[in-house]
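Researcher: We're teaching a course module on how sequence relates to structure. For the next exercise, students receive a sequence and then see the predicted structure as tokens, so they can try to spot secondary structure elements on their own. Here is the exercise chain.
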Amino acid sequence: MMKIIENYSLKSLNTFGVDVKTRYIAEIFSDNDLFKLLEDKEFESVRKFILGGGSNILFTKDFEGLVIKNSIPGINIIDEDDESIIIETGAGVNWDDFVSYCVEKKWCGVENLSLIPGTVGAAPIQNIGAYGQELKNVLYNLEGIFIETGEKKIFNNYECKFSYRESIFKNEFKNKFVITRIVFKLSKKPEVNISYPLVREELNNRKISDPKIRDLRKIVVDIRNSKLPDPKIIGNAGSFFKNPVVRNDKFKMLKEKYPDLNSYPVDDDHVKLSAAALIEKCGWKGKRIGNCGSYEKQPLVIVNYGEATAGEILELANNIRSSVEENFEVTLQQEVNLV
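Model: And here is the predicted structure for the students to work with:
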């Protein structure tokens, strides 16, 4: 049952563990819960923020408005044939629980996205991706409700305007549209994506010549656990910055100076660089300043070692960004959303 609470601490609801409060919070479990909130005159002119798993945000101060915790449940099969299955998922379902469910059913398409924190409803906003897979490759459509008008709308894949860690919901409709359910189209064929070098390396190390999707999930989980801090132990929001994309001529210049610099092709004219490698070459890996620092095993992750404030975390992020720009003339864009 939906309850509205005043002056609520969000410390346990953001993986950075930053101690801020919201004036109001309500947890929704259905479209009707959301409609009731939107129709409530008390909150008509109050600023609203949609919260999923709290894993890709940094609250910079107390939120003087209404936080809507999206906990809409449910996993349902919509349609299937011999080759594929269409499955609908509530926005509040834990993302990795969904991936685990699909892998157990031998449905292919999301296994490389294992152990990414957050909810299913937050995944399209960021167009999450890892180890050769992206959400946009399996999303069929999604449904949601506009906050201002209460209008329901279904977006097909094209209308979501997906790109690298971007979507229409992160830009044009940011904090204007509540995703309530997502529909995926997954394959029943035993297809695996081993395009990512580190995944192939692990398959060779484990002498797996004919990998199944369970093997892929296990490998991805092991890789992530070995490189990334558990937010339940050390506060963090995963990768703080996006991997930068540069033109080929720019990469050629950098490669002459740094021969070991890796890249991943984007198109005929651009390549993607490793933000972690750039940060490490600037000497930030494992460096701690006060209560926060760059994680010792993955410099792309900024961690909260204790009671770090958002200001301390942002100061560190800006210093890292400045170092990379000064040394490589490459500007890092943050992946974490600031609230």
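Model: If you want an answer key for the exercise: The CA atoms of residues 91 and 121 lie 4 Å apart. The chain has a mean pLDDT of 92.
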